[in-house]
Amino acid sequence: MKATAIANSNIALVKYWGKRNEEIILPQNSSISMTLDSLHTTTTVEFSKKLKEDSLIIDGKKVPENETEKVSKHLGLVRKLSGKELFAKVESENNFPKAAGLASSASGFAALSLAATKAFDLHLDKKELSVLARQGSGSASRSIFEGFAEWLKGSQIDGSDSYAKQIAPKDHWPELTMVIPVLTTKEKKIKSRAGMTQTVANSPLYQSWLDTIESDLDKVREGILEKRFSQLGKTAELNALKMHSTMLTTDPHIIYWEPQSITMMKEVMLMREEGIEAYFTIDGGPQIKILCLDKNAKKIENRVKEMKEVKKTYLCKAGDGAKLIDKDLF
């Protein structure tokens, strides 16, 4: 009973920040993302009667108990679906830095959900997989899908109507590009989950975030479907800044940005002044992602590569959803 899946990371263009239910991860707002073609997680899951507990290896290292607990809890959902109480060995590899603001939990739990269900020979459709992945990491619900996806916040208490759906396939807008300059590979001190809880609890700006989110969703959805780059970029950039404003005004403050984050934001604004249309977005972490069109992508990538703050760059297009592969990690 063994299977391997690969899932790409996704970057939200309208962010998800804050939960209405912490236990089964139900969001306060819907969100829209682009699944990337260059940042992925590969995960192998094997259930066996010989195992006495779940074990987890990420990037060749045995994972501490607190992280294994999250994965065990998620495997418990799959065990419940299958009706089989077997422990699992899980091995996972990322081709990008983990927990550094590049959405490794999204690709991680999407790959885990698909591999674990297949290992038990369960055949979930994409909606069911999205609901399952959401309960591991909210943004993982979107990594099930290729191209562009919207995670619907839903209204049901059991979360049955909170899942992602595809807005457009990966080949819908081939000119749209995301340049990701890696500014740090260090794991962030405050995980997104803890940051959200604090923000919802006491940021005076949180209600304003919710009051403007539907308008942002409409503009970004339309921007993608109609390929209106300026509309998409402006809305995504402001949405990210609004999200971070709720964190900055939380007590105690949550400041994910590093000095190099601000340097990169200002560099993107300078590009626009010089006539290169580009926009930035930032998740719960220090990394800046730059949205641009293909005609400017190499120019932008070469420009940021020259900056002393940049350790590595990724050039991403819209990519595949989670899928099974034949090559196991063990």
List strands and helices in order, with pairings:
Layout: E1 2-14, E2 19-21, E3 26-27, E4 31-48, E5 55-58, E6 61-62, H1 65-82, E7 87-94, H2 104-119, H3 126-134, H4 140-143, E8 148-151, E9 164-168, E10 176-182, H5 192-202, H6 206-225, H7 229-248, H8 259-273, E11 279-282, E12 288-293, H9 294-305, E13 312-316, E14 323-325
Parallel strand pairs: 5-7
Antiparallel strand pairs: 1-4, 1-14, 2-3, 4-7, 4-8, 5-6, 8-9, 10-12, 10-13, 11-12
Pick out its properties.
330 residues; Ribosomal Protein S5, domain 2; Alpha-Beta Plaits; four-stranded antiparallel β-sheet; 38% helix
Strand content: 25-35%
Report Rg: 19 Å
Helix coverage percent of residues?
25-40%
For the sheet with most strands, the description reads: 8 strands, mixed
The class by helix and strand makeup works out as: alpha+beta
**Low-confidence sequence ranges:** none
Instruction: Indicate the overall shape.
Output: globular
Q: What letter string, H or E per element, gives the SSE order?
A: EEEEEEHEHHHEEEHHHHEEHEE
CATH structural class of the largest domain: Alpha Beta
Mean pLDDT comes to: 95
Total domain units? 2
Number of strands: 14
GO molecular function: ATP binding; diphosphomevalonate decarboxylase activity
Protein name: Diphosphomevalonate decarboxylase
GO cellular component, one term: cytosol
InterPro entries: GHMP_kinase_C_sf, Mev_decarb, Mev_diP_decarb, MVD-like_N, Mvd1_C, Ribosomal_Su5_D2-typ_SF, Ribsml_uS5_D2-typ_fold_subgr
